[in-house]
Amino acid sequence: MVMSEEKVIYKYRDIYEQLEHTGDVYIKAYGRDLVSLLENSGIALFDTMVNIDRVECRVEKTINVEGFDLENLLYRWLEELLLLYYSENLVCSKVVVEELKISRVNGELAYYLKGLACCEKFNSEKHEPRVEVKSPTYSLMRIVKTEGAWVAYFVLDI
């Protein structure tokens, strides 16, 4: 089986890349561990929407999410971060995972994340709008542990 080569169309530092996709935004995020992978995935979300280098940390928001597996946790994390934009008109330049717990509840694994988002009210003149993200999706979503790093792939519906 021949694997198709990933075509990178945009790269932001060593945090994430946008890969070629027919109609949406396909993200490949990196992290040295699971915590930094989740943080960098959140940065990729906001950097897709605005120039995050121009976003200042003026408002801090706490985010709590639970998931039934890592992909579900990532999806819910991105969904809650995006909700900051749609409900409070906030864009974020930094997200920090303060707590990540994996536990067994009634024989099933449960995933919990508590994070902090550093945000600012969206200003189209300051933040250079890019594309409007409607939602994260499960399309092509996967989280992979490689030698020395974690990688997450996911599609943002635009």
Overview of the molecule:
With 158 residues, the chain is of the alpha+beta class. It contains 3 helices and 9 strands; from the N terminus they run E-E-E-H-E-H-E-E-H-E-E-E. The chain has one domain: Archease domain (Archease, Possible Chaperone, Chain: A, domain 1), CATH 3.55.10. It has helices spanning 34-49, 70-88, 124-127; strands at 8-12, 16-19, 25-31, 59-67, 90-105, 108-121, 135-136, 142-146, 149-157. The strands form 2 sheets. Strands 1, 2, 3, 7, 8 and 9 form a 6-stranded antiparallel β-sheet that branches. The protein starts with 7 loop residues before the first strand and ends with a strand.
What is the gist of this entry?
It is built from 3 helices and 9 strands, in the order E-E-E-H-E-H-E-E-H-E-E-E.
Question: Keywords, please?
Answer:
9 strands; Archease, Possible Chaperone, Chain: A, domain 1; alpha+beta; 158 residues; six-stranded antiparallel beta sheet; globular
Q: How many individual β-strands? A: 9
Mean pLDDT: 95
Main pleated-sheet profile = 6 strands, antiparallel
The CATH topology is Archease, Possible Chaperone, Chain: A, domain 1
SSE topology sketch:
Layout: E1 8-12, E2 16-19, E3 25-31, H1 34-49, E4 59-67, H2 70-88, E5 90-105, E6 108-121, H3 124-127, E7 135-136, E8 142-146, E9 149-157
Antiparallel strand pairs: 1-2, 2-3, 3-9, 4-6, 5-6, 7-9, 8-9
Helix pairs in contact: 1-2
